[in-house]
Design a protein that fits this description.
- The complex is a heterodimer of chains A (310) and B (577).
- By secondary structure, chain A is of the alpha+beta class.
- Chain A is built from 6 helices and 14 strands.
- Chain A has helices spanning 15-38, 45-58, 125-146, 151-165, 201-216, 272-283, and strands spanning 63-72, 99-108, 111-112, 115-120, 168-169, 180-183, 195-196, 199-200, 222-223, 236-240, 243-246, 249-252, 255-259, 264-266.
- In chain A, the strands form 4 sheets. A 5-stranded antiparallel beta sheet of chain A has the order 9-6-10-13-14. In chain A, strands 1, 2, 3 and 4 form a 4-stranded antiparallel beta sheet that branches.
- The longest helix of chain A is centred in the N-terminal third of the chain and has 24 residues, at 15-38.
- Chain A starts with 14 loop residues before the first helix and ends in a 27-residue tail after the last helix.
- With 577 residues, chain B is α/β, with parallel strands linked by helices.
- Chain B has helices spanning 44-50, 78-92, 105-114, 134-146, 150-162, 164-170, 174-193, 208-228, 276-279, 282-297, 322-333, 345-358, 372-385, 409-437, 459-479, 498-501, 509-526, 530-543, 552-563, 565-571, and strands spanning 6-12, 15-22, 29-33, 55-59, 98-103, 123-129, 239-246, 265-273, 313-317, 337-342, 363-366, 391-394, 400-401, 441-446, 484-490, 503-504, 547-549.
- In chain B, the strands form 3 sheets. Chain B has an 8-stranded mixed beta sheet, sandwiched between helices. In chain B, strands 11-10-9-12-14-15-17 form a 7-stranded parallel beta sheet, sandwiched between helices.
- The radius of gyration of chain B is 27 Å and the shape is elongated.
- Classes of the chains: A alpha+beta (310), B alpha/beta (577).
- The interface between A and B is small, with 10 and 13 residues.
């Protein structure tokens, strides 16, 4: 069945909807940053997720697309993961020099965000390099999607870049090897705040419905490297989460990509990792290879040239 | 060169020990401990060399030379010998910890001191030759007896054959009588004929007969008690292990797994015999000691991620991707300085950058391995800027698929140029450097399971890799005389970009792209990561393993190629591209 023959759905979100999605994403990143500032050596993954959940709920979050995750040390690169249960926060304690990743997906009034935040405590040269290189993937994915390449080809392009960098593709460890998934406004009426295997009941309802209806059109709301992703980017919102690793260090970002019928842009460029790159670019505008990754204090400067791509 | 030698006496455990000092007392102290049946004089060359920039201290071990003689066997116990070492160290350098360098029995007894609790406060570093820790040996033996693999049994047998004298030393009357009745007189000839030590007037000392007879007690007092019930002895002291490749008494594999006890271990190899290391290659040993003490004194030893690393230099061709990149990173992570070359300079530089993040500073060059002159120049550049490599990994290679009649002359040339000539040039250019330096080394040639697994669609590729396999076998036989090991690696199906750059005979560009994609997919589905091949290469260099098939299919194919080559000849008719 040639999937491309199916008519694409039209882009159905209003500016108001997008603004609400953006707010939810800002809220999620804001809470992640607060937890990142609070976190210190000795804290366990479970304590970190609990703190993240507490702050999100305090900020008005009613439900979760999935429960908050936190990974410390080499768990950021999903080393030695054999069962999906290992994704859940454990008793790993944060130590000096360790990288960490926070991942949460709050839902406010049906508007979902799904974010990933990578950080480190103390010095970690490998993390600095990975964090700087992550920028390449954000630009690459956007360029490929704007060229309306089939999603599995975009995935392959990301893989090729990962190989050139000498890193590992770590998003292939996620269930279904996904680098992203569609996000819609959840409208179902299941019990909020209840989760099954880490995913909210409402999520599963929505996702299940989407999986079936998209499948009928030869598309998938999950973005992976297989046959089911052999279609042009479906208009709508995609949570994109490239996750790269090197040795015992992993890093990711996850944010919403807006795909319209003929274009694409990142929903928001005012995010911690984008601000970090802007700061680094300004402080060391020299040869990228030779530039020592400097400290990553976020500045409040205006977003990058990416803003212009909107 | 003669520096004045100051003699003093240090008392330890009720015995006078004869201590000999030379060099500037304010310089870092090096304490040299001799073995059996020697005296401090065995260090003459090395002491004179080190005295230029070190405070060099030697002593005659109890029972030998001018030192006192214990009254009974208990006086030769390791605890006593370790106390002697600390007593001398305290006397000659009360303020600063000393660098211990030891050989043979000196090394065995120094291990006792080095693995004593809190030793790191008195001992700054330890360079050991030809004398393992007896406790470690006890565990080494147990481990091999419990897991009697053919390899382990071979090691046990080999070491057993070379340790016959230890058993003999435990028999009453025999060994002392042999020493008294002629061995002592014949000793200079033993050294000359068996150990390749040129005769010298000042060695051995006239006290040899007496020292040799008394020293037998060292064996009798310590071997059975310690090896029979070994203690868990580890150490914080940085240790430099100099393995002597032509040592008749201590096998090179005795140090396998030493990292378990010594987290900060630096491995060096010297192509020399048991005594020739000290008496013929004193300058080389002194150089190794000087490098090590300098590293400790500048405070960079604990962290191999400094510019110098652990002293090893590794060159990897085709280091810009796949197995080459993974190998470079694995060696860097292991603490070695790495130089990578590749046709793709940007990719090689990226590898060097990643290697520098997890190990010592690494360097990248653009080299075409199929160009002999360029390889010679590369070898000269590396020697001039980084030194003579200890490990050379000839990894660069290309894939090609096509039956014999499909493959054009040009395609043959290209495959052989890179896959075979690249390895020849690498072995020639860098093998010459290693042989000239005379400190041994290791050459790793990345061949393939295709070397012994015929396939009609891989004629050129398999031929080139089989040639590399045979080249390595011949080279190994020649280089063993130079102390240079040669390992052939046969990876099998590994997920690297060799599939994405492979060429296919008799195809259009579009067909070739499709075939590349298909092969890449197959290799990706197989999912065997290059990092595991890199791990196998690092291990092969450490253990000197000659032929290493890596993936399970490569191992099975190797077995089949020996059990039933006829079956593989039949299978070669299958069309696999």
């Amino acid at each position: 069945m040639p999937p491309m023959a199916n008519a694409m759905p039209t882009f159905s979100y209003t500016e108001r909807d997008l603004a609400r999605f953006r707010e939810t994403q800002q809220l999620a990143y804001h809470c992640a940053e607060q937890v990142a500032a609070w976190i210190e050596p000795g804290v366990t993954e479970r304590q970190a997720t609990a703190e993240l959940r507490r702050r999100l709920v305090a900020a008005g979050v009613q439900d979760f697309f999935h429960v908050p995750f936190a990974w410390f040390g080499d768990r950021t690169a999903f080393r030695h993961f054999r069962t999906p249960l290992q994704f859940f926060a454990g008793n790993r304690k944060l130590e000096e020099g360790m990288p960490y990743v926070l991942d949460c997906a709050p839902v406010v009034d049906g508007y979902t965000a799904d974010i990933g935040y990578g950080g480190k405590v103390g010095e970690n040269k490998v993390w600095d390099r990975l964090a700087a290189d992550l920028k390449v993937y954000r630009e690459l994915i956007l360029a490929e999607v704007r060229a309306r390449k089939p999603l599995n080809e975009v995935y392959a392009a990301v893989d090729a870049q990962i190989a050139a960098h000498g890193y590992d593709n770590r998003h292939q460890v996620y269930p279904g090897r996904v680098i992203g998934h569609q996000v819609t406004r959840t409208t179902v009426r299941g019990p909020a705040g209840v989760n099954v295997f880490g995913f909210g009941v409402r999520t599963l309802q929505t996702l299940g419905r989407e999986l079936i209806s998209e499948r009928l059109h030869g598309r998938s709301p999950l973005w992976a490297d297989g046959r089911s992703s052999r279609h042009a980017p479906t208009p709508g919102l995609w949570a994109v989460e490239p996750h790269i690793g090197f040795r015992g260090v992993g890093i990711k970002f996850e944010e919403l990509l807006v795909v319209t019928e003929d274009d694409a842009y990142w929903l928001d460029d005012d995010l911690p990792h984008v601000r970090r790159w802007t700061a680094t670019d300004e402080s060391a505008d020299t040869d990228r290879v030779d530039a020592q990754p400097t400290d990553d204090e976020p500045t409040d400067d205006e977003p990058t040239a990416l803003e212009a791509t909107r | 060169m003669t520096t004045p030698i100051r003699r003093r006496t240090v008392h330890s455990g009720g015995l006078p020990l004869a201590v000999f000092e030379q060099g500037d007392p304010d310089a870092p102290t090096v304490l040299l401990v001799h073995g059996y049946p020697d005296t401090h004089a065995v260090w003459d060359d090395i002491a004179a060399d080190l005295a230029r920039d070190h405070h060099v201290v030697r002593y005659d071990v109890r029972g030998a030379g001018e030192s006192g003689v214990p009254a009974n066997r208990d006086g030769y116990r390791l605890e006593q010998l370790a106390d002697d070492l600390f007593a001398v160290a305290d006397a000659v350098s009360p303020e600063r910890p000393v660098h211990v360098v030891a050989h043979d029995w000196g090394s065995i007894q120094s291990w006792e001191a080095v693995t004593a609790p809190g030793a790191e406060r008195r001992i700054a570093s330890y360079t050991t030759m030809s004398g393992p820790c007896l406790d470690h040996m006890g565990y080494w033996l147990r481990h091999r007896l419990r897991r009697p693999t053919p390899r382990h049994l071979g090691q046990l047998l080999h070491q057993g054959l070379h340790s016959w004298y230890i058993t003999a030393f435990h028999l009453p009357f025999l060994a002392p009588a042999v020493w008294r009745l002629g061995l002592a007189r014949a000793w200079p000839r033993v050294l000359r004929d068996l150990e390749h030590v040129s005769p010298r007037a000042d060695h051995p000392k006239p006290s040899l007969r007496r020292d040799a007879v008394r020293g037998i007690e060292l064996y009798r007092a310590n071997f059975r008690p310690t090896m029979g019930s070994p203690r868990e002895r580890s150490t914080e002291v940085p240790v430099q292990l100099i393995t002597l490749t032509r040592d008749r008494y201590a096998g090179t594999y005795l140090s396998e797994g030493l990292e378990r006890w010594v987290p900060e271990l630096t491995r060096r190899t010297l192509h020399a015999g048991h005594w020739a290391a000290l008496l013929e290659k004193g300058a080389t040993v002194a150089g190794m000691v000087r490098e090590f003490t300098a590293r400790i004194e500048t405070g960079s030893a604990g962290d191999p991620r400094t510019a110098e690393g652990d002293g090893r230099l590794v060159v990897v061709t085709g280091g810009g991707s796949g197995i080459g990149r993974a190998t470079a990173l694995a060696f860097a992570e292991d603490g070695a300085r790495v130089v990578v070359c590749d046709l793709d300079l940007a990719a090689a530089e990226r590898t060097a950058e990643l290697a520098s993040l997890i190990g010592p500073k690494a360097h990248a060059y653009r080299v075409d391995v199929s160009d002999g002159a360029a390889m010679d120049e590369f070898a000269q550049t590396v020697a001039a800027e980084h030194g003579v490599p200890d490990v050379m990994v000839n990894n660069a290679g290309i894939g090609h698929s096509g039956t014999f009649l499909q493959t054009t002359e040009k395609e043959w040339q290209r495959v052989l140029d890179v896959n075979l000539w690249g390895v020849i040039h690498g072995c020639r250019a860098f093998g010459t450097l290693m042989a000239d330096r005379g400190q041994g080394g290791h050459i790793v040639n990345v061949s393939s399971a295709a070397a012994y697994l015929p396939a009609k669609a891989l004629t050129a590729y398999a031929t080139s890799k089989a040639a590399v396999f045979m080249l390595s076998d011949c080279l190994r036989a020649e280089f063993v005389g130079h102390g240079i090991g040669v390992s052939t690696i046969c990876p099998g199906i590994v997920d690297t970009n060799i599939t994405r750059t492979s060429t296919f005979s008799a195809t259009t560009a579009a067909e070739q792209a499709a075939k590349q994609a298909r092969a890449a997919k197959l290799y990706a589905r197989r999912g065997f990561p290059p990092e595991k091949v890199a791990g196998a290469i690092v291990t092969a260099v450490r253990t000197g393993k000659p032929v290493v098939p890596v993936t399970p299919e490569a191992k099975v194919a190797r077995l089949l190629s020996r059990l039933s080559p006829g079956l593989l000849r039949l299978a070669a008719r299958l069309n696999v591209t």
